[in-house]
Amino acid sequence: MLKKGLAVVAILGIMAVPALAASPELMAAAAESGNTGSSKFLGMALAFALGGAAIGGALSQSNAIAKAVDAVARQPEAGARVQGMMIIGLALIETLVIYVLLICFVWGGRIV
């Protein structure tokens, strides 16, 4: 499952390369106006960061749930402890994704 997620991220990265290319005329016009075009790169970086965090969070949450179900299937009497630890772990994983979303909101105001 992890290999599929990494493959998706790699394919998206390869497909984004043409978007980073800019014509010399566009770069010259941006330099004259004082805008170096860095806001375009910031927007793309924020989008990739949020997408990567969402994909990573979803993959890690599904892995954690699968391992918890497997643990309860092997030892049903420890189900309550496993469930509690799983919920804490899922909350921590989701917190990381929310941190990236917060960073996107904070830095998103700098995009012109």
Features:
4 helices, F1FO ATP Synthase, 0% strand, 112 residues
Question: Summed up, what is this model?
Answer:
It contains four helices and no strands. With 112 residues, it is mainly alpha-helical. The chain starts with a helix and ends with a helix.
Q: Could you characterize the architecture of this molecule?
A:
By secondary structure, this protein is mainly α. The protein has a domain at 37-112: F1FO ATP Synthase (Up-down Bundle). Helices cover 86% and strands 0% of the residues. The chain is built from 4 helices and no strands. Helix 1 packs antiparallel against helix 3 and helix 3 packs antiparallel against helix 4 (79-108). The longest helix has 37 residues, at 38-74. The chain starts with a helix and ends with a helix.
Can you lay out the helices and strands and say which pair or pack?
Elements: H1 2-20, H2 24-33, H3 38-74, H4 79-108
Helix pairs in contact: 1-3, 3-4
Gross geometry: elongated
Biggest pleated-sheet summary: none
Question: In the CATH classification, which architecture of the domain at 37-112 applies?
Answer: Up-down Bundle
Under CATH, the topology of the domain at 37-112 can be stated as F1FO ATP Synthase
